[in-house]
Amino acid sequence: MAPYSLLVTRLQKALGVRQYHVASVLCQRAKVAMSHFEPNEYIHYDLLEKNINIVRKRLNRPLTLSEKIVYGHLDDPASQEIERGKSYLRLRPDRVAMQDATAQMAMLQFISSGLSKVAVPSTIHCDHLIEAQVGGEKDLRRAKDINQEVYNFLATAGAKYGVGFWKPGSGIIHQIILENYAYPGVLLIGTDSHTPNGGGLGGICIGVGGADAVDVMAGIPWELKCPKVIGVKLTGSLSGMATICNMGAEIGATTSVFPYNHRMKKYLSKTGREDIANLADEFKDHLVPDPGCHYDQLIEINLSELKPHINGPFTPDLAHPVAEVGKVAEKEGWPLDIRVGLIGSCTNSSYEDMGRSAAVAKQALAHGLKCKSQFTITPGSEQIRATIERDGYAQILRDLGGIVLANACGPCIGQWDRKDIKKGEKNTIVTSYNRNFTGRNDANPETHAFVTSPEIVTALAIAGTLKFNPETDYLTGTDGKKFRLEAPDADELPKGEFDPGQDTYQHPPKDSSGQHVDVSPTSQRLQLLEPFDKWDGKDLEDLQILIKVKGKCTTDHISAAGPWLKFRGHLDNISNNLLIGAINIENGKANSVRNAVTQEFGPVPDTARYYKKHGIRWVVIGDENYGEGSSREHAALEPRHLGGRAIITKSFARIHETNLKKQGLLPLTFADPADYNKIHPVDKLTIQGLKDFTPGKPLKCIIKHPNGTQETILLNHTFNETQIEWFRAGSALNRMKELQQ
Questions:
Q1: pTM score, two decimals?
Q2: Neighbours of 454 (CB within 10 A)
Q3: 435 is catalytic
Q4: How buried is residue 68: exposed, middle or buried, by Cβ count under 10 Å (0-12/13-18/19+)?
């Protein structure tokens, strides 16, 4: 890693320019810019082609599309070990994108690195901190006022370190990426779990934690475990490619990607990137899979045979045909009346999505009907907002009773100042969002949230009940006549050009030498980071169990969003939400754990702080797929900050496992999942084998029961040599600093 960093530094000094990707200096055959905003940073399909040919010759087999793009970005394609599911690949992503909630911690870490400029094109997108309350314009003004300190920090940090800044109101990060930065063959990492959305435009776009983003921005090769490849053969009628890629994150996919096709070419041209489309045409053989390529698993789906579904409540993988959900709800005791229907989010807020919802709305309006439920609309970007206003879609949805919210994430991530119910009141909402975990949208654990397509949400909001089947049931117009809704149709793209709306982008200045980034020591929103302590060279003795988690534990359970988003730049303050949503197996309650010293039950963060103050190191015990959901690295930073040393589970979600490693924690899994049942909250654990910590070698765990008996179990890990160096240094950031010295 060190030689590359030195090369970047020397190139920067020699050339006197921003130290973007070394490939940008060494190889510029095709002079087509990555985006309008970076006219001097070019797409390097020639380098992609060269690397693909090297790897294909080495492996002596046809390559899948994902392999072409991933292996085409290898740091050393000639000697990189490549084995699906086992090797750790060292990659050179083309760019980095960060949303404002995660960008705060990412930029604080980058500042701590001591580097002067980012090494690859990078952007910050202000979409997470705008709370939905009364409507777009007023909510945006309120957010700018409340979050002024954070927005100023991100804008000035972007200006100083060479990062483009999309101002609040510009739109949701993933829609902005589709409109401006995604292109066929790009390798993009983003500090949000729904970054795979960009796969709808033929790129490999992967969600990561902030520390991974810092590595790439620092010019260090990014490590990714070589993914297995699932082929999905789709037949029938296909609509939203980005939507499919976006939702792949909900079933644990690293990312999803579609091969280059005529619809991508059309979209690139419509968004002012015809030059990229033409270049992609020249290299199209490298932007589709090779004939005869091998997949680890092949799935075939006829889209024309799929019936409309609605998923939920409380999890996005509980699916019901729309025709049956009413009966299921009656049987389960779920509220049938729909209080609010919400469309938009990064999953379903394109021009076509809004058009299809408007087509449903027009039918209801023609019969004198409006929504029986409350109804909100979230445009994906300023460009989408301006275009649906110009083309009349927004007004049609308003006429139906809808409120157009700000171009932001809003209720999808819990930024919703909901007034129509009280906390604890049982109710149902239906959204076109991507997640519906307990309490995610409105912090009410009794809100039964369902997810489905925008047109289904619109139809259900008109009817006001889960019992309505839009395909077969009748509505009654104001004239007393019954009618059925026809399946909506809408243009994929506007007939004319997109209306860009207001200019919301801030270019980083060419000369940032006079730029200052201030963080007040008394700020409650921002806090400069202190390095985590290094490993002391010893085994971890007598670890106290902070909590043994029962069942699902997502990043929402570990580090809640909603009102806590305002503390995303202040590690100590946001640590007050550590694991407050996790269910303690000892008493079946959330945010209530036993203090092993006082024997009193109290909040999880308070107990962790007590242990830290008294020098007691602790561990968390978890169940399956621990840390699924968001990419938020705060779910790893917080336990490290409050004295945690290890997280032991049956299995981990990919992003969260990496985030834990980056912060110097030990994510470990039971060699025998049944050993989860051997550990009790009152036990103490000793983890042995760290002095001989090597890849592939299990660690021993001694379980010490209060009655004096002991048991020994084995714990597996997925650390490679580089990641073991992170652990020994105390964090990946600490290791980076060591390499710079």
A1: 0.90
A2: 30
A3: yes
A4: buried
Q: Cβ-count burial of 680 within 10 angstroms (0-12 exposed, 13-18 middle, 19+ buried)?
A: middle
Residue 236 Ramachandran class (φ > 0 left, ψ -120 to 50 alpha, else beta): left
The C-alpha atoms of residue 603 and residue 578 are separated, in whole angstroms, by 9
Catalytic residue, chosen from 632, 634, 641, 654, is 632
Q: Which of 75, 94, 192, 353 is catalytic?
A: 192
Tell me: the pLDDT tens digits for 296-323?
999 999 988 888 899 999 988 899 999 9
pLDDT tens sequence across 441-475: 999 999 999 999 999 999 999 999 999 999 999 99
Q: Is the peptide bond before 603 cis (omega within 30 degrees of 0)?
A: no
Confidence at 30, pLDDT banded by 50, 70, 90: low
CA distance from start to end of the chain: 13
Q: List the catalytic residue out of 92, 95, 128, 174.
A: 128
CA distance 395 to 389: 7
Tokens for 350, please give them: 């394109």
**Among 165, 240, 173, which Cα is nearest to 207's?**
173
128 is catalytic: yes
Please name the amino acid found at residue 377.
Answer: I
Catalytic residue among 435, 557, 594, 654: 435
Q: What is the DSSP string of 273-307?
A: -HHHHHHHHHTGGGSSPPTT---SEEEEEEGGGPP
Say what angle helices 732-740 and 2-15 make with each other, to 10 degrees. 60
Assign residue 708 a region (left: φ > 0; alpha: ψ between -120 and 50; beta: otherwise): left
Q: Which of 100, 127, 139, 353 is catalytic?
A: 127
Catalytic residue check, 632: yes
24: annotated active-site residue = no
Q: How far is CA 679 from the centre of its chain?
A: 32
* Cα 347 from Cα 147, distance rounded (Å): 25
